[in-house]
Design goal:
CATH superfamily: SGNH hydrolase
Oligomer: single chain
Distance between the termini: 15 Å
Protein name: Arylesterase
Structural class: alpha/beta
Organism: Pontibacter aquaedesilientis
Order of helices and strands: EHHEHEHHEHEH
Number of strands: 5
Radius of gyration: 15 Å
Largest sheet: 5 strands, parallel
Strand order of the largest sheet: 2-1-3-4-5
Domain SGNH hydrolase-type esterase: 6-169
CATH class: Alpha Beta
CATH architecture: 3-Layer(aba) Sandwich
């Protein structure tokens, strides 16, 4: 049995929802339905930034990791943490995963912040994920919240966290990339 570790924030944790409705659980179900022998571990913690993720990473790398899904950065963007700092933290996470589990496949989930944010920050923030994916030759989900962000009917009343229907889209975006990795293993 192989392991997929989802390492993220409230989006991964499924904030405000039963665990079974969080997108990592939906991916687990899809894997079972398709006959893949994988266990999904949801290491999502609400409020996590890339810095706090880096801080807690070692604990999660002590076990087996065949595929590592890195879905951090949304809280950095919401807090206006400099894009360079977010990029450095994500790079350190990727480096640690590669060092501890050199055979593991990595999927980086991109984040974006609305273009209504003044200045260059939104563009820099969006670009940092794509640049990291290219530099590290890892699989890439361009924008985890594609089609969900800003859509009232797909979010909880807070307007920020996906509801059960929104989580299904997060699962679909992630599955599209994960499925390619699984095909390569066959």
């Amino acid at each position: 049995m192989k392991t997929i570790l989802f390492f993220g924030d409230s989006l991964t944790a499924g904030y405000g929802l039963p665990t079974a409705q969080a997108y990592p659980s939906l991916i687990q179900q899809k894997l079972q339905d398709e006959g893949h022998d994988y266990t999904v571990i949801n290491a999502g913690i609400s409020g996590d930034t890339t810095a706090s993720g880096l801080y807690r990473l070692d604990k999660w790398l002590s076990g087996p990791v065949d595929i590592f899904v890195l879905a951090l950065g949304a809280n950095d963007g919401l807090r206006g943490i400099p894009a360079r700092e977010t990029s450095q933290n994500l790079q350190q996470i990727i480096d640690k995963v590669k060092h501890k589990h050199p055979e593991a496949q990595i999927i980086l989930s991109g984040m974006e912040i609305p273009d209504i944010v003044p200045g260059r920050y939104a563009a820099e923030f969006r670009a940092l994920f794509r640049e990291l994916a290219i530099r590290n030759n890892v699989s890439f989900v361009p924008f985890l919240l594609e089609g969900v962000a800003g859509m009232r009917h797909l979010n909880l009343p807070d307007g920020v966290h996906p509801n059960a229907e929104g989580q299904k889209l997060l699962a679909r975006h992630t599955w599209a990339v994960l499925e390619d990795l699984l095909k390569k293993e066959l």
